[in-house]
Write a structure and sequence with these properties.
Length: 120
């Protein structure tokens, strides 16, 4: 793991629109203790588990240096590759920490592929 890994947050267009209005994505609004983040190399795993077939997903590319709350690397779910850890942001994700937004569309069968190299 590098000292400053690339991080992404997966969300629907409506969630991103609301976050821009409020200034942040707050995990307390959904009852979660943290904001789910991923690395670009692993984001297809939660996308397929949670959002299969959704055509409105966005990837929020996050600058870790602009986060104000701690990021902890923790296990995902048992079906994830062994020893894979996911970044969890224990506090709000400020809109100002999002440095790029890209669409993340499923294949015709509804599955999400790993990101192409230019997005990692």
């Amino acid at each position: 793991m590098t000292a400053d890994p690339k991080l992404v947050h997966l969300c629907g267009a409506d969630e991103w629109s609301s976050a821009r209005d409020r200034g942040a994505i707050d995990p307390a609004a959904t009852g979660d203790p943290f904001v789910h983040l991923s690395t670009p190399e692993q984001v297809h795993l939660p996308a397929n588990r949670l959002y299969r077939g959704r055509a409105d997903l966005l990837l929020l590319h996050v600058d870790p240096a602009l986060l104000e709350s701690p990021v902890r690397w923790e296990p995902g779910v048992p079906t994830d590759p062994e020893s894979m850890l996911f970044p969890h942001l224990y506090g709000p994700l400020p809109v100002r920490a999002v440095i790029r937004v890209t669409a993340y569309r499923p294949a015709p069968d509804g599955t999400f592929a790993p990101l192409p190299q230019e997005l990692t």
